[in-house]
Design a protein that fits this description.
The protein has seven helices and eight strands. By secondary structure, it is α/β, with parallel strands linked by helices. It has one domain: Vaccinia Virus protein VP39 (Rossmann fold). It is globular.
Length: about 210
């Protein structure tokens, strides 16, 4: 169902409650992405979330919070190139790309149908590149990995070969378990306001890639 940008803006504002100010260009991109996502979801069943408000909250607002975290924590460290591993429908990678157009975001997705959706929904976005491949097959190195559709251990296994740092979208309980791994240092978990059991956690590998 087509959603007006004004309606999308209202849903986002209701969930974020001033946590992040989304500009008009990003809102237009995300509203268009949502329109295509809604249409493709009926055909491809990319997610079980059907309620519009819940979809905006879970998929888009959580991605906006991830973008805010990256801007605050990782950009000052020099982050410019991001890979969203197992991007699926573009969550959180496409949202991050819309919110932070000064960063380059690669959406890594091995499923060909989903990769097609990613290309369609981000067409004309100059800071997005869709990679239809398994992450383990990519020779690239990035500044930061993000992921929501992959397990935390799968992401950590890609470090530091693919990137020195990652941002995990996980549960508080899982984050506490991961902190026992001496191969990584973990930032303080940042709770998702409307889902207290879910957190954002920055991770840095203690191992460095040889020059």
């Amino acid at each position: 169902m087509r959603m007006r940008v004004e309606d999308f803006r209202a849903l986002v504002a209701t969930r974020l409650l001033g946590l992040w100010d989304v500009d008009d260009d990003a809102l237009v991109k995300l509203a268009r992405h949502h329109e295509l996502f809604d249409r493709w979801n009926m055909r491809m069943d990319q997610t079980a979330v059907r309620d519009t408000g819940e979809a905006v909250e879970r998929h888009y607002c959580e991605g906006i919070l991830a973008a805010a975290h990256i801007q605050r924590v990782h950009v000052p460290r020099g982050t410019k190139l991001i890979a969203d591993i197992g991007s699926g429908a573009g969550f959180p990678g496409a949202v991050i790309a819309a919110i932070l157009p000064h960063l380059i975001v690669h959406l890594v997705e091995s499923n060909l149908d989903k990769a097609l959706f990613l290309r369609d929904s981000t067409r004309g976005w100059p800071n997005v590149k869709v990679r239809s491949s398994r992450a383990t097959n990519l020779p690239d190195r990035f500044d930061l990995l993000v992921a929501r559709g992959m397990s935390n251990r799968e992401i950590l296994a890609l470090m530091p070969k693919m990137a020195q740092e990652a941002l995990l979208m996980t549960t508080k309980a899982e984050a506490e378990t991961l902190e026992e791994d001496a191969d990584f240092t973990f930032g303080l978990p940042e709770p998702i306001p409307w889902a207290p059991s879910k957190v954002l956690v920055s991770v840095c590998s203690t191992w460095n890639m040889p020059e």
